[in-house]
Amino acid sequence: MKVACVIPLYNNASTVLAVAGDCRRYLEQVVVVDDGSSDLPPHFDRDLQAIGGELIRHSHNRGKGAAIKSALALLNRSDTDYMITIDADGQHLPDDLPQFLDLLAKDGQDGDLIVIGARDFTGKNIPDASKFGRQFSNFWVKLETGVNCDDSQSGFRAYPVKALSRLKLRCCRYNFEIEVLVRCLWGGLRLREIPIGVIYAPPGERITHFRPFMDNLRLSLLHTALVARRLSGLPSRRLVATAPAPNTPSPWKSPRAFFLFLLHENATPGLLGLSAGLSSFLAILPLLSCHMLVILYVCIRLRLNKVMALAIQNLFMPPLTPFLCLQLGYFMRHGTFLREASMQTVVYELHLRYLDWLLGSLVLAPPIAVVVGLTVYAAASRLNRKKSRLDHAGCSEKS
């Protein structure tokens, strides 16, 4: 296979040549994409050429995603099979490249593999914001694709060039790496992760171009759009010829196995909490006679735990929850509570007070959903820890 290395560059003149030189020890083609840097010396082109690197230049800063897209276009024209992206700031270790190359040689011959280097976050100087951001991002990628990813924010990756070139990718900055990962998984590519080392400079010395407000806003908007696309049911562009075979037991041939599958499906504490919270929110809304259908649809599209969602829904069955919402909505509109609360006014005439019900539910649903979701998450996390301790104790007794 033909594999090239791509190094997006923006104002990392002090480290990029060393990174490119180390990458050249393992790969014949190393492409540096200068994304409008202002700190490069006048002879940078010559120095890069001296170590065997190629240079693509942007006249102004367009973003990391735009830099990767420029390299992708170049490599696609030259029939490159895979491109491996690595950061220019020295955070990633080029000595981890052989792991990528070995995995691609063994398992990537069909051009349907995306490989991510999962960073070791047990070392020194790892920012707490990076740890939280990684877990937060992993959660949303799991929700959007149903695939577990240990480090969805890592920039040390191997992409299949031909498959990637078929995608219409809109993001151009740091959000590009989330968009391309999700759309690759939607397209049927296989994900593999390998452990890699990472170097973080001490606080105050590290150079970062991540802008917390704007880049986090872009990421939040992207996740919102991806979840909405997932809920819409619109088909995604397939990047491989065949879809993976379903591994769900048949409810008719193996009802017990099917029920156990539903119980354990997407049963991490985070997804259980989200299932409970989202089900609570939807169950409180005035979705007349179709709560169960809406909840099931959302759970299927987002691959949530259906058993948890349907069980939580029963907590908000009529008449108590609609009555509370109706009273709150009535108070918001008229400044007083509905005094004549009877079967006639609350149940039989509920359709006449739909607006009151809707207003009250929109106020009550969000906080109740948060409380229920966090409660289920805490309970599931505690049960997981208890199970881990019991499993550890059992293993110790056997040994």
UniProtKB/TrEMBL annotation:
One Pfam assignment: Glycos_transf_2
Entry's transmembrane regions: 278-300, 307-330, 357-380
Keyword set includes Oxidoreductase: no
Origin superkingdom: Bacteria
Family annotation (CDD domains): DPM_DPG-synthase_like (cd04179)
Domain Glycosyltransferase 2-like: 6-148
Key word Transmembrane helix present: yes
Domain DUF2062: residue ranges: 272-387
Keywords tagged on the record: Membrane, Transmembrane, Transmembrane helix
InterPro entries from the UniProt entry: DUF2062, Glyco_trans_2-like, Glycosyltransferase_2, Nucleotide-diphossugar_trans
Protein name (Swiss-Prot/TrEMBL): Glycosyltransferase involved in cell wall biosynthesis
Organism encoding this protein: Oligosphaera ethanolica
Lineage: Bacteria, Pseudomonadati, Lentisphaerota, Oligosphaeria, Oligosphaerales
